[in-house]
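Batch manifest line 761
LIGAND: zinc ion
JOB: complex structure
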Amino acid sequence: MKLATYRLLVSGLVQGIGFRPFIYRLATKNQLVGRVENRNDGVVILVNATREQVEVFREQILGTQPGAASIQSIRIQQMPYTPFDTFLISPSENVSGRITEISPDIAVCEACLSDLDHQLHRISYPLINCTHCGPRFSIIRELPYDRPHTTMSVFQMCDLCRSEYEQVQDRRFHAQPVACNHCGPVYSITSGDEKSSQIDQVLRKTARLLSQGALLAIKGTGGYHLVCDAFHSGGIQKLRHMKKRDGKPFAVMFHSLEEAREWVWINDLEEELLSSWQRPIVLLNRKREFTPGVADGLSTLGVMLPYMPFHHLLFKELDHPALVMTSGNFSEEPLLISDASVHNQFEDFVDGVVSYNREIYNRVDDSVTAVMGDLPMVLRRARGYTPTPLRTRFDLEGILGTGAELSASFCLGRETMAIMSQYTGDLKNLETYEFYRESYERFSHLFRFTPRMVVSDLHPDYLSTRFASELAAEKQIPHLRVQHHHAHLASGMLQAGLEGEVIGFCFDGTGLGLDGIAWGGEVLKSSYLGFERLYHFDYIPLPGGDRAIKEPWRTGLSYLYQIYGTDLLHLRTPLNKAFTDEELRQIISLLEKGINSPLVSSAGRLFDAVAAISGLIYRSTFQAEAPMKLEAALDPTEDGTYPIEIKEGRISFLPLMRQLVEDLHHGISLARVSARFHLSLVNLIVDLAAEIRASQGLEKVVLSGGTFQNRFLTKKVVRKLDIEGFQVYLPDHIPVNDQGIAAGQVAIGAHQINSGLALYA
Ligand code: ZN
Ligand code: ZN
Ligand code: FE
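JOB STATUS: finished
ARTIFACT:
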């Protein structure tokens, strides 16, 4: 047996999660000597061992790594022999230019929850954490991840905490946010003129107010929540009143899985997602009606489990096992993170503010996920996921994608990693745009990013496009403009590592097309370097332009007008009955004269029209309300379909609408009409895929765009395509909606810059 010194370079997400102490314990258990150190590019381990021992050691690292770690690779190298006496943990070494990963925020671990009852200096300490759990991304200002670089820097560790922090065997060894009742940040509650900051009082008072129907602002990990008792209509009414222009469903935090199961169906994958350390909101099918005002008219409920120690402590004091918890903001504005802004903006609406005196540096909302068939999909990528990079097989270095407008986010290419920003919201809002720019500054600093190309949407009016052109001018770098749906599909290709050409179905609300018209029902033959538009939803006019997006009845009327002309006034659909002839005539006159009626090809608007004609919804109060409610309304046992006509690449839904109107006249229920509509789209996709395979010889199908958040549609499409022998790809780590656009832009930019070929030539 020959001893040698081996060097193991562990890369991936290995910092800030107790990785070095883990290596220390493993090495001592195996009686290995050497050392471990954090570097900017990963963790380096030196051990004196035989080749066999080092292989076993490697396997043990991979097999028993801490929960939140995600090892990408372990490279082993034999080095000149160095004698060691023991196993040591060395201080951090700075390797400039290269980066390692910053951990996302991690839900409180079981061991810490147990410490809340047993550790004398942490009894009920509401900000307890250890190397395996606690805040990370939300408090970090600078790399490497050390306490002075976080918002914990202002708190002096007490002797007890310091000894744990310095004790290699301790679970809090080098836990940067380590704190206790003696030395850490504290919670407080302010209600009226009263303020308390003694934790037992804070918890009792918070619980009492909530059970009385209060609406409270409570500081979370990455921003404030607005919180009320999920079974008290008083609190929910206050919340609805505060968010009156916005009928969005609210998420509910349940005390436990068991309590949640009373109300929603939870399968194994969903349980795994709910209980994961990321603790996202998971959209789940409801078993029965929930409290009115929470998620009316939808078949799903957004559910999450407690993830901060404070949540766990609070539930012990509460009579009811569920809280409505929604983002602390007004519609479309960024989440509030500072006490001052909460007091200024929420004062007239909330009955109290629960806060703690540690600053949130990086704002990060709750993430939203859903399981589609057997695929867990991230729909809003934020807390728990940001800033974990997506590892790809392509060189993406220096490419910045600035995203779209709704659900905005940007993406940095660093080496082969796509680093996506957190969800920021709708850029039409000025505060959101400021948050977006600030986040870009912070990400480029944290990840030492120097852009060499910036990629934006084609739309000249998106603030993300303007941001791109300003940055390109300032840095003297190229600015590439990429078509919206091309970017959607590229995000799916990037995640799956696909190259060459694919069949792409991209259905969404809207994105500017190459012909200057708003697209959104696109069937493309697509690669990173371009696309061919094989089929698209036939254009229809939108009477009133953007107003029609908020008022689906206008789009419904537009479809009816294409079929029946002014005879539509004699129809007996629910839409006809809901409006006076005078109101209908006003819209008809816009259509007749072609005034303010831009053309669109949009799947989102198609769903709007069906929802409006069948009487489900005439005006929407939040994005995608009509499609969501149409899905919720459908009868899954129905198997009928409607005809769709395809002529010279144009997909016409007029025959479908004609048949749908007939159904409504015959009293067929909304549930069956909705199902027939959905099934018609499923067939359309599968038929077109088969046709393209026959003519073009392509077998890979990418689905992208917000419409594929529709679980009924997506599950059916994926299953049918699978049976037909296609390889189907759907972005899941990258959101399928517009938050995913930026990653697709980066993929296209990287291929363009590396090939030198022009796009859309
Ligand atoms: Zn812990
Ligand atoms: Zn302490
Ligand atoms: Fe889109």
